[in-house]
Design brief:
117 residues; single chain; 0% strand; mainly alpha
């Protein structure tokens, strides 16, 4: 029976820590029913019920997907839709993303590998 009390205590501590950091990292304008600072106080002071109140009354709601909606652009792309030639196009950023995207780096590397060329 002692292990059950320990398990309940451990679960309560984990849920409390999760709720506190979830409330801490939630943008202030997305917290529901109370200002964010008050949610942190409620979670911190009312340990047995503070995290339960946060989960049901304070967490931001995620919009439920409406049946029949078109998937977002990121979800609609599959591996079959990718074209290998798209990867060789420049990214449009002012500087290269990696060494293998930098033509100067590749030229210097080729000279180091084969100096006679």
């Amino acid at each position: 029976m002692v292990w059950l009390g320990g398990l309940i205590t451990l679960v309560s501590i984990v849920l409390w820590v999760y709720a506190f950091f979830d409330a801490l990292t939630t943008p202030a304008q997305e917290a529901r029913n109370l200002p964010k600072i008050l949610w942190l106080v409620v979670i911190g002071l009312f340990v047995p019920v503070g995290f339960i109140l946060w989960f049901f009354l304070g967490r931001p709601r995620t919009p439920a997907p409406v049946p029949g909606d078109a998937p977002a652009q990121d979800e609609a792309v599959s591996a079959d839709d990718l074209d290998p030639s798209d990867f060789s196009k420049p990214s449009g950023s002012p500087h290269p993303l990696g060494p293998d995207d930098d033509p100067d780096f590749l030229r210097r590397l080729n000279r180091r590998i084969d100096p006679e060329d």
